[in-house]
Amino acid sequence: MDLRRLRYFVAVAEERSVGKAAERLRMAQPPLSVQIRKLEAELGTALFRRGTRGMDLTEAGLALMSRASEALALAEEGIEAARAIASGQRGRLSVGYMFVLASAVLPRLVPELRRSLPGVDLDFVELSASTRETLLLDRAVSVALCMPAIHHREIQVAQIGTQPLMLAMPSRSPLARLAAVPVERLHGRPLVALPRPQDEPTSSAVAALLRRHQVVMPVVSRVETVHSALSLVLAGEGLAILPACAKLGAPPGIVFRPFLEIADAIEIAACWRRDSSSPLIRNFVKSAEKVVARL
């Protein structure tokens, strides 16, 4: 049934007059009468009869009227829901995040998303270096906050910020006495490292920093998360070169120092499937950019 005709029917039934209904609908009376007749023809029964006080509903008209307003309200709700989803104000968004960003970003990002996207159902999934790409490609998460970005032909990337690289070490380390560490002082010292990017294993920010200064640090362990790296550093297994935001999740006994006269940084990126057309992702990226800018 044409919803437009149903609206015309409700207007005539409520006004009990084709003329008054036409005024309410801001249309001429003859076309409205034509639409009512077409609706009656479609249903195969009369919906109105003329009474002393105007247009009265027949028994069939009463039956239709009892459901028509509800049907129109449901249709309007559906239209509004579709518009809200199309504008990125409603829907479901699964947000992946890497552990290194949890303490620095989530306490600010989650309230911002709840405020700016109140109609969106949100859930959060912790990612590791080895799972982030797979979970995105398998659509287990809608968008991922990554450090560094994922480089894959099916994944779209938006850089939303950077974090300077710092040296993490036990507080008992001689290097902890320095306000800033010359990168040359790291030569030959053991390194606790995170997994290398699968697509570009020699171009990570840490590898680039060491290579540029001709510093060699033997890798004693490769771990999945910053938390594991810091635990091994605390145990005295080696040093770690990490983004500055990792300080927020560091256990007691770990200190961070900047590098002397070096401003190398690692990017923070929002990543999602290229074939995703959800406007929720666009709104998420705006909120994430706002939060990361305040780090």
Tell me about this structure.
With 295 residues, this protein is an alpha/beta fold. It folds into three domains: 84 residues, Orthogonal Bundle (Arc Repressor Mutant, subunit A); 96 residues, Periplasmic binding protein-like II (D-Maltodextrin-Binding Protein, domain 2), CATH 3.40.190.10; 102 residues, D-Maltodextrin-Binding Protein, domain 2. The protein contains nine helices and eleven strands. Strands 3, 4, 5, 6, 9, 10 and 11 form a seven-stranded mixed sheet that branches. A two-stranded antiparallel ribbon has the order 1-2. It has a two-stranded parallel sheet with strand order 7-8. α5 links the parallel β3 and β4. α1 packs across α4. The longest helix has 28 residues. The protein starts with a helix and ends with a helix. The mean pLDDT is 88.
Summarize the structure.
With 295 residues, the protein is α/β, with parallel strands linked by helices.
Question: Which terms would index this structure?
Answer:
two-stranded antiparallel ribbon, alpha/beta, 295 residues, Arc Repressor Mutant, subunit A, single chain, rod-shaped, D-Maltodextrin-Binding Protein, domain 2, 11 strands
